[in-house]
Amino acid sequence: MYQGSTSKQSVLNATHAFAALPFVCVLQVRHHLRVVMCFSLVGDAFRDRLRRFPSLITCTTIDWFTVWPNDALASVAQQALADLDVEQGLRNQLAAQCVHFHLTARELTDRWGPGADRQTGAKITGT
Q: CB–CB of 126/68 below 8 Å?
């Protein structure tokens, strides 16, 4: 099993080192493993997946790669407000206010992010 020194202590040390290899391997994998998952935000599948697996939100770092354009934010707001029983002019004003809230939150996040002790800054999305 062990070739080299024939002293009992060196054989014992080699046996313990060999037995510790799986433990050391697991530690290295845990330390260096990174998993990248990509999900489409279109439709209800993403929302349903998040409800079934809440640790996708609480135990991960989410990095949204693109900033949403203002017209996309307005479209999402219009869709969310579509069932609201108000006149169209008021609905448009509410959607514009939602875009303003989002842009303000994004600006504050960008200002706050560099001072935080985080590897990646927080990102704000339109969902």
A: yes
